[in-house]
Specification:
Elements: H1 9-23, H2 30-37, H3 41-48, H4 51-74, H5 80-95, H6 97-100, H7 105-112, H8 118-144, H9 154-172, H10 178-189
Helix pairs in contact: 1-2, 1-4, 4-8, 5-9, 5-10, 8-9, 9-10
Amino acid sequence: MPRPKEFDPGEAMQEAMEAFWQRGYHATSIHDLLSEMKLNRGSMYATFGDKKQLFMAALDEYERQGRAALSEALDRPGSVKEILREWVMQVADACSGEAGSRGCLALKAALEVAPHDADVADWLRHVSRRRERAVAQVIRRGQTEGDINPRLDPRAIARYLMSSLAGLRVLGTASPAHRQMREVADLIVRILD
């Protein structure tokens, strides 16, 4: 009979995700992971697999958290244009100041790992498509309700919003002022007019 785990796998995964987010994939050593997760090597490998498997699981957890936040931000009643505006402003706020300097784990993976790793590149394509579909669905709702210009292509607008927000996250790594991020966000949401 296997011994019960003496640690919380969810907490350990969160710590691993934070380690990769802070240092990047290549700069995060197994020693760093074991230290952050407060695990021994055997427990880490038995529960999460090797470093690459753990990284993929950390990306999945990051995406799960992001999907929940996106759903919370967009799946609300009211003016779709205002809902999208508030969402873009929330992202802009999260990208400003010291908090924004952290960047985005998915974007870091895209830049650091995806060019050399098909699994990470596939993961990014899948996540991007899923997010784009979710945003396009909300835009279609706004068009049906007369809140968003019906001549706009929902998929193209969703792609534009997602790429613009990715740009905000990159800009955020330079710790810009809150006002500067809001100015850019104001320009981004004008596409909905």
